[in-house]
Amino acid sequence: MSETATQRVGQSPLQYVSDQLAELRAKGTAPKLRVVEGEQKPVCVIDGREVINLASNNYLGLTTHKALRKAAIEAVRKYGVGAGAVRTIAGTMKIHMDLEEQIARFKNVEACVVFQSGFTANAGTVSAVLGKEDLIISDELNHASIIDGARLSKATIKVFKHKDVADCERILQENANWSGHKLIITDGVFSMDGDIAPLPALCDLAEKYNCIMMVDDAHSSGVLGRNGRGTVDHLDCHGRVQIQVGTLSKAIGAMGGYVCGSRDLIDFLYLRARPFLFSTSHPPATAAACQAAFTLLDSPEGERLVKKLWANTKVFKRELKKRGFQFKASETPIIPIHVGDAAKAFEFSRKLFEAGVYAPAVGYPTVAEGKARLRAIVSATHKREQLLKAADILAEVGKQLGVV
Prior knowledge:
By secondary structure, this protein is of the alpha/beta class.
């Protein structure tokens, strides 16, 4: 028996996983999950410590809004706690159809389908509408769910440089005679740098080269556009984007994802999108909370919340810049604080937490090697004094570590 085989005797077949985990821990890049005790708010208790929360995607503070709470409770009383089946068997309740119709009206499209998450909305849609004879042209910084959906489709994937319209057109020119379908796909707002896609120019290319245009609006839903209608509305691209993906898990305050488009597209996804076909539908309370969120968004209060989000963003960015931080790419409430080295980024986050601010570190594989950063996200419900205090703490700890 070889030495290697001898060493393996009695070991778990998953020993290699333990070895890799130990290596990550030794590098300081394996943080434990932080546990939120109580409500998801601008200041909350995490792991027993009260901290200013700059980690949440709860852009508008809707996770704890009284209208969403009331809707969820009433739905439980009326419908129970679960749907009991997948949508295509017995799991489509009227509340699910009502939510889809409400979102379609809000987004100014023919129809909508709700998925269990934004990830499954992207992955399930791309893999359903494209096949091995087709071509996907994708921004290099697109979300992992887009990447996975593209791989699952078995289509040929070509990646263009981030937000580089000329590079995208180069790929389209090189594949002008492609016999299958072609899809240009981009995030609306990129989740790690907070920058906005050049959507009008990409729509121009889609029309010029006869491509489907698809946008993932996860981080712009409830943030950009009139009352938070997203990138398509913000950049006046109505009627030019065939597939719009959004989330119910961030600014909407609950959980899930959705796809908007033509009636035929949605009816096709009902039949062919695997996550939709093989996952139990949303609990009634979740669907009802989402309905309440869209009703609120499309009201004067929703408009005020979006304006407050942007006012807070302006204040926090200004205060960070005063203290020496640079984040030129960010155009939204997502504020990246670049560190580079992953171990140092995680140390920065840990020291911030000890000082009273929670801003998580992000390293590989979420971002490329050598591009680790902290990601701070502002909400409409942060108070000015909280943002000023957070900026002071970030600067103090950042100076200690040589980040700023």
